[in-house]
Design a protein that fits this description.
Length: 187
């Protein structure tokens, strides 16, 4: 019979640990460049709500679809099916948040409990599929589209320091903005 309790964290195994004085290695980032469809999007379920079909279409047009493998499709479909269920329950709860109990007393709509359970499942799948900015960061996925690189900022500083300072301030990097101001003063 196996041991009870949580599974052992493989990173805690000394034989597999890197020799970098106890510092944990961070996974490399996977850059999701511009949108290049990997496959034709699967057809959404005809019974889904219109906003769920729209979200399905948006997902398959996003750079995130590039990392979805064939074996991931059931989880993606499960997410959108749960999203559809969430929308239907949410609509029903909005009609009547309180209902009449068996003895005539007002009570909370029993669908509220189901709504909470579905929301929990959706949140878990959102995190696993990288559907939020934080979960993409945890999974090591970044979207390079629309971001300015350090090289582009350096080129801007050489050609037009004032524009580079404004761009650095837009990304809220005060230290970088100060460095660029010093660079401009040196010229």
């Amino acid at each position: 019979m196996g041991k009870r309790g949580p599974l052992k964290d493989p990173s805690s195994d000394r034989s597999q640990r890197s020799h970098s004085k106890g510092k944990a290695e961070t996974p490399g980032l996977v850059v999701l460049p511009g949108i290049k469809p990997k496959r034709t999007p699967p057809v959404p379920d005809s019974k889904w709500e219109p906003q769920v079909k729209k979200a399905w279409k948006t997902f398959w047009q996003s750079p995130l679809q590039q990392v979805v493998e064939e074996c991931d499709l059931p989880a993606v479909v499960r997410y959108f099916s749960l999203y559809n269920l969430h929308e239907r329950i949410f609509r029903a709860v909005n009609v009547a948040i309180a209902v009449t109990g068996s003895k005539g007393q007002p009570r909370a709509n029993p669908l509220l409990k189901s709504l909470g359970e579905v929301q929990g499942q959706l949140l878990r799948l959102e995190n696993e599929l990288g559907l939020t900015p934080m979960s993409r960061a945890r999974l090591g996925l970044i979207n390079a589209q629309g971001r300015i690189t350090a090289q582009q900022l350096n080129d801007m500083a050489k050609n037009n320091p004032a524009e580079a300072i404004q761009e650095a301030e837009l990304v809220e990097d005060e230290e970088l903005a100060q460095m660029l101001e010093q660079y401009e003063e040196a010229d």
